[in-house]
Specification:
It contains 16 helices and 14 strands. It is an alpha+beta fold. It has 2 domains: 110 residues, Phosphorylase Kinase, domain 1 (2-Layer Sandwich), CATH 3.30.200; 302 residues, Alpha-Beta Complex (Aminoglycoside 3'-phosphotransferase, Chain: A, domain 2). The chain has a 5-stranded antiparallel sheet with strand order 1-2-3-7-6, sandwiched between helices. It has a 3-stranded antiparallel sheet with strand order 8-10-11. α15 runs antiparallel to α16.
């Protein structure tokens, strides 16, 4: 049967028929239609706000997966089971990090929809960063979320059999295929789905496509994405999947969740902060924020780079703390007996060095796909001056290239900031 999006009255009647949702939206015995507004601007699904017309603070979000990719329409069919992946991931991440994950009130596996917490005083982080807003707790919240979700899904915490079953329960072939194509493959080919901005110098991407060092680095990252089932990932952790206010940070939309390499989620956060950083040439000009100093006396552009550093450093610190709490210093899962504890700590240090390199490789891929691939980001597409947009895009590509090619030699997050500043200053292409 052909899929039809639910009408407002159908959705209203449906929500009233679910006791748990009815109780959230209504006073006992209250009747009458709900206010329904379709608000989705994502690439995959339909999203609605459903509110009590007389008491608008009684409100929920409804998300439904149509049998196709919303961005493209029926010509790109997708099974609707992504909603089950998303619900399972929200429940798992919510159990690990309830302060950073919206609550799921109800899930319907026949209609492929869920009803979840409305975050009415929060904004999408990408838009807030474009507007130049400082969130003092953002990096601490994101690093806590990353450390807890990535650690507790992995073999550093789970028993080996539990972990292996978790890997198979989280298989998400269709959405992983989208990432394999759109992040790791099409941007590096002359693929018809690629989209270039009007003044974008095509020679820049041709140079990257012809760089063996870059192509091998991207191949390594694709291999890692497809094979390194390290932990349950969000799978699409860009700044459009994060909602914020002064005090709180929530991570939404984990429909791409699957067991993959830890650095894929970390890299997504770092990449999107860097995209926000490079886009400041335009947004500062528009908002006159270039010289505006923030609480700690730094321009907004520099605050964004500080977040890159703080997210990684906070993540590393919290992740290592969890590891040390859950694994004895003298006998580790991977080193075995180590009475002096020397090998255990050396292994942890090596693990974190590798994880930073992996995260930077994924960050590079994600930055490149947002410049030449089909799914772009508003930080960059909102730059109305074509030649400025092209200049920003070139800086993003130059930074991404260095992160990919030099990732194993980068010995700390400070070096990443230096690379970003050099790309911003028009530094060398590697
Ligand atoms: C075709 S879907 C495009 C993108 O939207 C999602 O947010 C993912 O990033 C995906 O690659
Ligand atoms: Mg999404």
């Amino acid at each position: 049967m052909e899929f039809e999006a639910l009408s407002s009255s159908e959705l209203s009647a449906y929500l009233r028929s679910v006791p748990a949702v009815y109780a959230l939206l209504n006073e006992p015995g209250e009747t009458g239609d709900l206010d329904i507004a379709e608000v989705g601007d994502g690439n995959l699904n339909f999203v609605y706000f459903a509110s009590n017309a007389r008491a608008p603070e009684r409100s929920v979000v409804v998300k439904q997966a149509p049998p196709f990719l919303r961005l493209v329409g029926k010509s790109w069919p997708l099974t609707r089971h992504r909603m089950e992946r998303e619900v399972a991931a929200l429940q798992r991440f919510g159990a690990l990090c309830p302060q950073h994950v919206p609550r799921v009130y109800h899930a319907d596996s026949d209609l492929f929809l869920m009803v979840m917490q409305r975050l009415s005083s929060h904004r999408i982080l990408r838009q807030a960063l474009m507007d130049g807003i400082v969130y003092p707790k953002l990096a601490a919240h994101l690093s806590t979320y990353l450390a807890h979700t990535l650690f507790y899904g992995s073999d550093l915490f789970l028993a080996p059999d539990v972990k292996k079953h978790a890997v198979s329960d989280a298989v998400n072939t269709e959405l992983c295929k989208i990432t394999e194509d759109l992040v790791f493959t099409y941007p590096f080919e002359d693929h018809p789905s690629n989209v270039y901005s009007p003044a974008f110098p095509r020679a820049e991407i041709e140079r990257l496509r012809q760089s063996p060092a870059l192509r091998l680095a991207v191949a390594d990252m694709k291999w890692s994405f497809m094979n390194d089932a390290e932990t349950l990932l969000h799978g699409d952790l860009h700044t459009g999947s994060i909602m914020v206010n002064e005090d709180e940070t929530y991570v939404i939309d984990p429909e791409f969740a699957f067991y993959g390499p830890m650095g894929f989620d970390i890299g997504a956060v770092l990449a999107n902060l860097l995209l926000a950083y490079f886009s400041r040439d335009w947004h500062d000009r528009e908002q006159d924020t270039a010289l505006q100093l923030h609480a700690d006396g730094v321009p907004y552009r520099d605050w964004l780079l500080e977040q890159v550093s703080a997210v990684w450093s906070g993540f590393e610190k919290t992740f290592l703390k969890l590891w040390r709490v859950h694994e004895s210093r003298r006998k580790s899962h991977f080193i075995g007996d180590d009475p002096g504890g020397v090998c255990v700590e050396a292994y942890r240090a090596r693990f974190m060095r590798r994880l930073l390199a992996q995260s930077l490789g994924f960050a590079g891929c994600k930055m490149i796909r947002r410049i030449v691939g089909m799914a772009k980001v508003a930080d960059i597409t909102s730059i109305a001056d074509h030649s400025l947009r092209a200049a920003v895009e070139v800086r993003v590509l130059r930074c991404a290239e260095r992160l990919l090619v030099e990732r194993d030699a980068i010995d700390g997050i400070a070096q990443v900031l230096a690379i970003a500043r050099e790309a911003q200053a028009g530094g060398r292409a590697s």
